Amino acid sequence: MFFGAHVSIAGGIFNAPLNAAALGCEVFQMFTRSPQGGQVPELTPEVVALFKTNCELTGQREWYIHCPYFINFASANPRIKHGSISVVRQELERGTLLDAKYIMAHLGSYKDLGEDKGFTQLVDGLAEMLKGYKGSTQFLIEISAGAGAVIGDTFEEIKKIIYHPKLKKYDIGVCYDIQHGFASGYDVRTPKAVAATFDKFDQLIGLEKLKMFHCNDSKVEFNSHKDRHEHIGDGHIGHAGFEALLAEPRLKDKNFVLETEPNRVREDLLLLKQLRTQHT
Questions:
Q1: 230: enclosing H helix or E strand
Q2: Helix (H, G, I), strand (E, B) or coil at 191
Q3: Where are the domains of the chain?
Q4: What are phi and psi of 106, to 5 degrees?
Q5: How far apart are CA 151 and CA 72, in angstroms?
Q6: What pLDDT does 32 receive?
Q7: Rounded to an integer, what distance in angstroms lies between the CA atom of residue 12 and that of residue 264?
């Protein structure tokens, strides 16, 4: 079990591992491009080599890529739909160049097309995106906070996507955002709640599909369906919830990446490391 944070690539992607090490990260997450769109920085052989050298020098165990925010596989706008397919495939290829373990994406929303038509378009888009992909970076669906018609806020829906006949051969995994799950009605505030939540995950999806965590406390109350991250211990999940998560034996080989506000990421990391020490 290793801990890290989402870090900046300002000045070049090769700075990400240096920024991660400065915070005390053991693993890290980054964008490889602006999350809002625009020009995509080229990954030249020199850039890739320097990135990998810096990962090695700073002792980073794994690194992950977050896809841009404009992705929506269920959009009624053909440009957004095709752009989503193309960009996520590019990120998989870029991840493979960089030896990233995983990329994760929010899949979008059904608000344009409705759930039935939107789901069909989503599955077809994901199948097109993954067709012929031979790289080493694995694609993960991130559980969402369930606001409006956002895709992927229940275990049942995630199961329906990753085990769909058109998609099951691609071995899609899950990135579990603790705050999003909590906002979607999956409690983790006590050892009993953690056990029940991951019993359900295992029963519906299978814990072998759970690859990593986004580690965020929640500014909003349980089952509120809002995406609002808080520093560890300061939100509605609380210190006891994270202690329960880190003590759950079935999660002992999963890594946790913070997406909390930059002002206290160092303190959040230290707190997680202290909790880990209590349970090893």
A1: strand 229-230
A2: helix
A3: 3-278
A4: -85, 135
A5: 9
A6: 96
A7: 23
Window from 6-10, 107-111, 255-259, 274-278 with minimum mean pLDDT: 274-278
Burial classification of residue 254, based on how many CB atoms lie within 10 Å of its CB (0-12 exposed, 13-18 middle, 19 or more buried):
middle
Tokens found for residue 250? 């079935």
pTM for the full model? Answer: 0.96
Q: What length does the chain have? A: 280
Distance, CA of 194 to CA of 200 (rounded, Å): 10
The superfamily (CATH) of domain 3-278 is: Divalent-metal-dependent TIM barrel enzymes (3.20.20.150)
- Are residues 144 and 152 in contact, defined by beta-carbon separation less than 8 angstroms? yes
SS3 content of the chain, % helix, strand, coil (to 5): 45, 15, 40
- What tens digit of pLDDT does each residue of 110-169 get? 999 999 999 999 999 999 999 999 999 999 999 999 777 899 999 999 999 999 999 999
Token pair 């560890």 is found at: 232
Instruction: Read off the tokens for 71.
Output: 């992705």
The whole-angstrom separation of Cα 173 and Cα 126 is 13
pLDDT, tens digit, for every residue of 199-234?
999 999 999 999 999 999 999 999 999 999 999 999
Rounded distance between C-alpha atoms, residue 243 and residue 215, angstroms: 12
Give the C-alpha separation, 68 to 91, whole Å. Answer: 9
